[in-house]
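User: Please fill in residues for this 104-position structure.
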């Protein structure tokens, strides 16, 4: 799992690659939340997510909750097939932004 984050003019762009699983959730939380604090809006690109479990999903919920709490704009974009599968299985794909995978 890797997260590459670039910030420019108060906007953070995060690219998540690899597994969003219980084995990486704490590390990912430690990377995403401080960047959310330091920007006005954040875009999280999920196109590189190869696997996601309930811990990964909980992390997405946490980031969404914290963005709402801080009145910051948060977008989840370019969902991978693995991410779409979980969001659709849970019936909440429309609550997590761009639900059509993009070719990069």
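Assistant: Residues filled in for all 104 positions:
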């Amino acid at each position: 799992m890797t997260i590459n984050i670039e910030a420019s003019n108060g906007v953070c762009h995060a690219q998540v690659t690899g597994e969003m699983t219980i084995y990486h959730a704490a590390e990912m939380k430690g990377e995403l939340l401080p960047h959310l604090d330091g920007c006005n809006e954040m875009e999280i690109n999920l196109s590189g997510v190869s696997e996601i479990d309930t811990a990964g999903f909980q992390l997405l919920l946490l980031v969404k909750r914290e963005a709402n709490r801080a009145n910051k704009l948060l977008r989840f974009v370019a969902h991978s097939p693995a991410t779409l599968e979980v969001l659709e299985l849970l019936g909440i794909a429309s609550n997590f932004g761009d639900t059509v995978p993009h070719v990069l």
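For context: Confidence is low (pLDDT under 50) at residues 99-104.
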